[in-house]
Design brief:
It holds the Pfam family Gln-synt_N. This protein has 355 residues and is α+β, with helices and mostly antiparallel strands. The protein contains nine helices and 13 strands. The mean pLDDT is 97.
């Protein structure tokens, strides 16, 4: 009798003295997550420098020409594999030419240079990223829970809601939450968002380059879970036009000095620096962001910079707790849901600490 597929997927590989490593990287569009698996000898691996480099066909990802297509993957971060379990691992990689130069789309390499700068490193920059996304029906690419070809009732009842008529896709959200915890990610929470079919998870309090690594792996896990469920996850910043909220990746930031007494004044100075470079940040904060940053639906207008305490209609928000305690963090509300966290986190650090 042939074993059911589920039995084969759950086979225990411990007796083989081998593990499966899933190498993950970012493709040429900047949002297409790619991965492939390889067999490695031995038991648990926690140090990415102990893993072999690998290659892929860059001409098939828009990252190399066909007559010189080899791109090299450098392992950078390791996480437990929630799909294969055991000692199997997920490996976040970045991409280089055979000569060892970072390829043009390798934003991680650029970010590491900023985070390794002594003036940045000494400040221990913390990031927390609120990743919003929308679940779509596979065949029609329309939000989960919405009438086919139609619209649900107006926004209001859906934010953090419960009930079959208000929350659509919770099993996917919970599966993703637990899978991220299993993998070792610093996932801080999850909730339903203002637009029905839209959800959010948070990667909380990660230092420097780790925030980008963790968000990309969390996105990968979400893509895999929705693949299993036959649902599409969209990171489009405005998946449905009209009177509906868009999707963002609000980025919370603090430095060691901001977290100490008197830090609020440093936060204000950092916000002033962000205002000076508003246009440069907007250009790097995600494709299609102009459809979201309209001054409506809890956003500031893309063409102007503003900040305020507890103001979700501002470019940058300072929390009430930070104001009251005179120290803490601020939230950059401009990044869109499809932003590259390597680019956004390093740019915030560069502008506020080096700029």
């Amino acid at each position: 009798m042939v074993s059911p597929l589920s039995d084969l997927l759950n086979l225990d590989l411990s007796d083989t003295k081998k593990i499966i490593a899933e190498y993950i990287w970012i493709g040429g569009s900047g949002m297409d997550i790619r991965s492939k698996a390889r067999t490695l000898p031995g038991g648990p691996v926690t140090d990415p420098t102990k893993l072999p480099k690998w290659n892929y066909d860059g001409s098939s990802t828009g990252q190399a020409a066909g007559d010189n297509s080899e791109v090299i993957l450098y392992p950078q971060a390791i996480f437990k594999d929630p799909f294969r379990k055991g000692n199997n691992i997920l490996v976040m990689c970045d991409a280089y030419t055979p000569a060892g130069d970072p390829i043009p789309t390798n934003n991680r390499h650029k970010a590491v240079k900023i985070f390794e700068h002594p003036n940045v490193k000494s400040e221990e920059p913390w990031f927390g990223i609120e990743q919003e996304y929308t679940l779509l029906k596979k065949d029609v690419k329309w939000p989960l829970g919405w009438p086919l070809g139609g619209y649900p009732g107006p926004q209001g009842p859906y934010y953090c809601a419960v009930g079959a008529d208000k929350a659509f896709g919770r099993d996917i959200v919970d599966a993703h939450y637990k899978a991220c915890l299993y993998a070792g990610l610093s996932i801080g929470g999850a909730n339903g968002e203002v637009m029905p079919g839209q959800w959010e998870f948070q990667i909380s309090t990660v230092v420097g380059i780790g925030a980008g690594d963790q968000l990309w792996v969390a996105r990968y896990i979400l893509e895999r879970i929705t693949e299993i469920c036959g649902v599409i996850v969209s990171f489009d910043p405005k998946p449905v036009e009209g009177d509906w909220n868009g999707a963002a990746a609000h980025t919370n930031f603090s430095t060691k000095s901001m977290r100490k007494d008197g830090g609020l004044e440093l936060i204000k100075k950092a916000i002033e620096k962000l205002e000076v470079k508003h246009k440069q940040h907007i250009a790097a904060y995600g494709e299609g962001n102009e459809r979201r940053l309209t001054g409506k639906h809890e956003t500031a207008d893309i063409n102007s910079f503003s900040w305020g305490v507890a103001n979700r209609g501002a470019s940058v928000r300072v929390g009430r707790d930070t104001e009251r305690e005179g120290k803490g963090y601020f939230e950059d509300r401009r990044p869109s849901s499809n932003m590259d966290p390597y680019l956004v986190t390093s740019m915030i650090a560069e502008t506020t600490l080096l700029g």
